[in-house]
Amino acid sequence: MTxxxxxxxxxxxxxxRLAGIGPVPTAGSTTWTxxxxxxxxxxASVIRAGxxxxxxxxxxxxxxxxxxxxxxxxxxxxxxPWAQVAKQIADRNAWYRAHPxxxxxxx
Length: 107
Prior knowledge:
Blueprint: H1 7-17, H2 30-34, H3 40-79, H4 82-98
Helix pairs in contact: 1-3
């Protein structure tokens, strides 16, 4: 398992570092390619692309955790012989209906 990734601190960092830079083209786009390599907007777009990767990775980790939790729940639910459990409950309820005076009572 990889180390958990959190997008929120990255978002705050990027917002702080890129404040005032203005519109940022999408990394790899024609507009981005036409910019000078030292242009702050070009650098900012690569930083934004990294921020986006962090967000996507956090979402992937959340989905993965949910998948494994669901799988564990399914495995647990299938571990018991539910037909046998239902029969035991039905038999117990029928016995108490036939013997109501023997039902446990709280003190």
